[in-house]
């Protein structure tokens, strides 16, 4: 088994899960969480958490998707594109993802259909993950998607495979633990999209489409997924429901063998792992800023049962459109610097009449997305306080900071959220590296916030989440964070 070489470079992030690591691979058992405050904490404010030494905690690493060593490097444009082009591509993917969010709401409002969604999130390949499937294990690289709930792989016999898949399709005939779901199995009846019964074979056939018109279709099945725990031991998890895909969009999932959904839907990987005895329904990650150095990597955990994070906000369901299983939160206001913006609360909440709007945390969206009125208020106040010329030849807001000094700091942007108790507010703070990202052009910094049409859920994206320890405590329906150095 090969160890994973983790390197980083400017671009979009990629997740590589440390699965089936060599015994010589070192596994970190502690993390440093920094105190929160009005400014970015310094290194001398660290306090080390208790050691995590659990047999059901999975550790992983994040690197930029565009790096030449990325497992999705077959689809990488790192060597042929500039930083500006990569930023622009990330912005386009973020806006396309926003179009998907909006379409999901509009489709539900127009059809009145509150069953499971037919379309899942846009597959932009923001992250990828290594998985080991079957007995004996077969190894694959799959896209991670926080906006969908299906786990699926390229499978034999593959009538139409992903052209640039890094591995051969999963071969069910070479696995003693493979089990094809019958038409009467719960996995078939409760599948996230409509299924059909193959009268000839008795198999449960599925079709799962994505908003960018890519798709997968094949057979609903159960398999054993093998992971490596934080304490270094490996263990198999049986009966993971997945799609054994025999027909995929040829170019829809470049550089990968399949996809793993992470949302709140019942078929996502975290939802299925939560059914395993002793496995806590939590995942967490810590992202290095967009311009982080290649020597560092970000961490990701499944099943962390405890942390020293004390700042939490509740997850809120979309009660009007319950199948929208995104990670909604209740933002009550936004500040720029020390100025609280005059934003009508109705612009921040999920609409009680049609389920539109609201704000979600999404690691699969690069930029932070705000609807028009909210975006304009944030932008106007930011420009007023950050008094640098706007560069006009960019498709988004960029600033000429060639005359800035070393002490120049952009104003922080603060999301004010309801606390778990409801008695007070908590703050999610976007510091300099969360607000501005460097362009290829010397002396130019670009705002990591984009406008989206009214009705679309607003998004706190992965640039905003960088240098925050993020905890998605699904068991207690809350999201927590602490300001930290993700190095």
TrEMBL record:
Keyword vocabulary terms for this entry: Aspartyl protease, Glycoprotein, Hydrolase, Protease
Residue ranges occupied by any Peptidase A1 domain in the UniProt entry: 127-482
Keyword Cell division: no
Annotated Gene3D superfamilies: Acid Proteases
One Pfam family matching this protein: TAXi_N
Domain of life: Eukaryota
Name assigned to this protein: Peptidase A1 domain-containing protein
């Amino acid at each position: 088994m090969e160890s994973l070489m983790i390197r980083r470079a400017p671009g979009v992030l990629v997740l590589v899960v440390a699965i089936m690591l060599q015994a010589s691979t070192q596994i970190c058992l502690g993390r440093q969480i920094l105190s929160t405050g009005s400014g970015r904490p310094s290194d001398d404010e660290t306090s080390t958490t208790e050691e995590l030494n659990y047999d059901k905690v999975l550790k992983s690493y994040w690197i930029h998707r565009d790096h030449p060593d990325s497992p999705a490097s077959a689809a990488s444009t790192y060597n042929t594109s500039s930083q500006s082009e990569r930023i622009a591509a990330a912005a386009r993917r973020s806006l396309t993802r926003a179009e998907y969010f909006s379409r999901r709401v509009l489709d539900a409002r127009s059809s009145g259909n509150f069953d499971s969604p037919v379309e899942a999130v846009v597959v932009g390949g923001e992250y990828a993950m290594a998985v080991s499937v079957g007995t004996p294990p077969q190894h694959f690289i799959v896209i991670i998607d926080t906006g969908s709930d299906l786990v699926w792989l390229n499978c034999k016999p593959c009538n139409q495979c992903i052209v640039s898949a890094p591995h051969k399709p999963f071969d069910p005939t070479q696995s003693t633990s493979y089990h094809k779901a019958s038409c009467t199995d719960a996995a078939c009846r409760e599948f996230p999209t409509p299924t059909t019964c193959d009268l000839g074979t008795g198999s449960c056939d599925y079709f799962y489409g994505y908003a960018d018109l890519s798709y997968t279709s094949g057979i609903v099945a159960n398999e054993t997924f093998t992971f490596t725990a934080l304490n270094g031991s490996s263990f198999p998890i049986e009966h993971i429901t997945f799609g054994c895909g025999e027909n995929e969009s040829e170019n829809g999932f470049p550089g990968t063998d399949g996809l793993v959904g992470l949302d709140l839907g019942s078929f996502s990987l975290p939802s299925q792992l939560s059914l395993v005895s002793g496995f806590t329904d939590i995942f967490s990650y810590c992202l290095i800023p967009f311009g982080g150095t290649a020597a560092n990597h970000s961490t990701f955990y499944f099943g962390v049962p405890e942390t020293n994070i004390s700042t939490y906000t509740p997850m809120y369901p979309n009660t009007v459109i319950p199948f929208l299983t995104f990670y909604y939160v209740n933002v009550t206001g936004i500040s720029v610097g020390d100025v609280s913006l005059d934003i009508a609360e109705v612009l921040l909440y999920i609409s009680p009449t049609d389920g539109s709007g609201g704000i979600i945390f999404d690691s699969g969206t690069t930029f932070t997305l705000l609807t028009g009125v909210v975006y304009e208020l944030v932008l106007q106040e930011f420009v007023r306080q950050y008094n640098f010329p706007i560069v006009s030849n960019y498709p988004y807001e960029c600033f000429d900071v060639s005359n800035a000094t070393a002490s120049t700091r952009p104003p922080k942007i603060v999301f004010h959220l309801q606390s778990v108790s409801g008695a007070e507010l908590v703050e999610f703070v976007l510091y300099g590296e969360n607000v501005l990202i460097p362009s290829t052009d010397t002396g130019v910094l670009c705002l990591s916030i984009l406008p989206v049409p009214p009705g679309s859920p607003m998004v706190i994206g992965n640039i905003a989440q960088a240098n925050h320890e993020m905890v998605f405590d699904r068991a207690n329906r809350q999201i927590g964070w602490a300001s930290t150095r993700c190095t």
